[in-house]
Amino acid sequence: MKQRDGLRVLRAASLLFAVTATSVYAAPVSFSESQASRGEKIFKEVCADCHGANLRGGLIGGPPLTGSAFEEKYMKGTPASAIFAFTSAMMPPDAPGQFSPAEYADMIAFILRENGVQTSGAPLPTNPNALDQLIIDK
Fold first, then answer.
1. β-sheet bridge partners, residue 110
2. Which of 3, 43, 67, 77 is most buried by a 10 A CB count?
């Protein structure tokens, strides 16, 4: 019986730590309207053929960047670092990594804005550690 009580205390302490760590270190994702505007320009020049000008999928077959599948993957408490890492390492498919970190942040700001995330004025950072601390949630 005492070992079981010890496990309960340990579980409770772990849960408390997890809740405290999340509430202390995680913040809602931030980006500026100017970032989103710059990102829209790049997106429409480079990404719209695959993903569509309205982000709902394009002629070349890129997946939609709006809707339930996108929201499930990126808009339910996901760290901003996840979308940044994928986008900057894999996009565009014919020349991954061709943009600067700031340009990738701009495009992500545009995608977030189009998914209903509110601008905050603070720019989306490009530092992976800072992005880990920003949570995307609608």
1. none
2. 43
